Amino acid sequence: xxxxxxxxxxxxxxxxxxxxxxxxxxxxxxxxxxxxxxxxxxxxxxxxxxxxxxxxxxxxxxxxxxxxxxxxxxxxxxxxxxxxxxxxxxxxxxxxxxxxxxxxxxxxxxxxxxxxxxxxxxxxxxxxxxxxxxxxxxxxxxxxxxxxxxxxxxxxxxxxxxxxxxxxxxxxxxxxxxxxxxxxxxxxxxxxxxxxxxxxxxxxxxxxxxxxxxxxxxxxxxxxxxxxxxxxxxxxxxxxxxxxxxxxxxxxxxxxxxxxxxxxxxxxxxxxxxxxxxxxxxxxxxxxxxxxxxxxxxxxx
Length: 301
Prior knowledge:
By secondary structure, the protein is an alpha/beta fold. It is built from eleven helices and 13 strands.
């Protein structure tokens, strides 16, 4: 039976598709977007998160670590991530839950059991399950099995994807996806490479192929000041979206910096420390610009 690495299962979600939903976050992503708000989903393996604000400096984790990866200087506790083997002994020893291993291997049956807990809410609200990440298509066998299991149970399925995958992967899952939540970040190929690390060629061609086959698609545009909020990119985005034969809506997702603390907990540097959210007026102007292309547009997800 297929299994994979999940880093979160969020219940009662209302921003990841219609109705009340359960969102399952899978680890691993081929992109490295500078504004990523789920950095714990980028790497495919398990990772250690450390909440420095929760730590009381008791030192209980030091003798617990068999690798000697943890040190303390006064009240400051540090972890050598090169030595850490993610055995979890420090997590068990921490009184304040300042340590957490992000990611766990789960079977399809285990994930499905979590999803089925909310069946009454799906029935009443028209909701279902959304597979997100990271990038769920980064674990193709696992997400394919999960989607099939949900469809066999009559559960509405949504796939939140960046679209960067071989067409063969998308083709193998598309019949079990009721709704695609499809990211569209930058239209210029060079700029896309600069800010995400990959070409947008496969992303655009996969989106066109899905639309041509009549799939339900909501395009999601993260609005990142100074990166993709310029008129040229937005007009190219609007023209591309308007030319698709089947499209439900465009969602604008204004940038926020609430994920900055996650980078600290993972021992990383946040790439956009000076970036601020766009103003309400700026967002409203972009909404109108895209509506001028004949698109249905919603701001805020």
